[in-house]
Amino acid sequence: MRQRKIDVVITDDHKLFRKGMRSLLGDFTFINNLYEAGNGVELLDLLKKTTPKPDVILLDLKMPVMDGVEANKKLKEIYPDIKVIVLTMEDDEQYILHLINEGVNGYLMKNADPEELELALKKVVENDFYFTDNISALVFRNFVSGKKSTNINSAAISPRELQVLELICMEYTAAEIADKLALSVRTVEGFRRKLLYKTGTKNMAGLVVYALKNNIVKI
């Protein structure tokens, strides 16, 4: 399936970094419009004036006026459908886990390869989340190996929903899940919505974390 074009906002307080990112992203064939913001306040002001809303926000954490943590919180309240990829040099494990729990769709270090940034953008649009191998391992270590579980009643999740959940955790897209389980994409989307509702999670990233945390699936 052809990759649809997406609109992206680069949010960072360093102008040179934004210009470099604009140049890099401009080479990706699936990028449509590019916007810039210098902090969380500028980002929210930009979004008020932008129609249609951008698909993805690349969000730095350390910014003046309003930092990325506060900006993400407001984004999830006001614009829950916009995907957020944190792009930062902050590699503290507890910080990363906190932001994943707060609903970010992806987390990348600023020294990531351009190919990984390209993959992350595609994945958050297709799957709603993207974690690097290192962050996936971090989530697994903290939420499966010895961390306290919330003891969900997994019986509340039907066998079919469990199949869908396992494939989500394996990074299958809705179309790929539909093909594998001989379902329509609309039916798969329905299962995804039910899983979000039953687990009380904000997006597919949170759902994957929840499944690992509660040992519902093993990947």
Summing up helix and strand content along with how strands pair, one would put the structural category as: alpha/beta
Given the structure, what is the number of helices? 10
Terminal residue distance: 26 Å
- The tally of strands reads 6
Task: State the CATH class of the largest domain.
Answer: Alpha Beta
What best-fitting shape do the alpha-carbon axes yield? Answer: globular
Order of helices and strands: EHEHEHEHEHEHHHHH
Q: Share of helix among residues? A: 40-55%
What value does the average pLDDT take?
88
Instruction: Give the second-level CATH assignment, the architecture of the largest domain.
Output: 3-Layer(aba) Sandwich
Taking pLDDT < 50 over at least 5 consecutive residues as the criterion, the unreliable ranges are none
> What share of residues are in beta strands?
5-15%
Descriptive account of the structure:
The protein is an alpha/beta fold. 50% of the residues lie in helices and 13% in strands. The protein has 10 helices and 6 strands, in the order βαβαβαβαβαβααααα. A 6-stranded parallel beta sheet has the order 2-1-3-4-5-6. α2 (40-49) runs parallel beside α3 (68-78) and α6 packs across α10. The chain is globular, with a radius of gyration of 17 Å. The two termini are 26 Å apart. The mean pLDDT is 88.
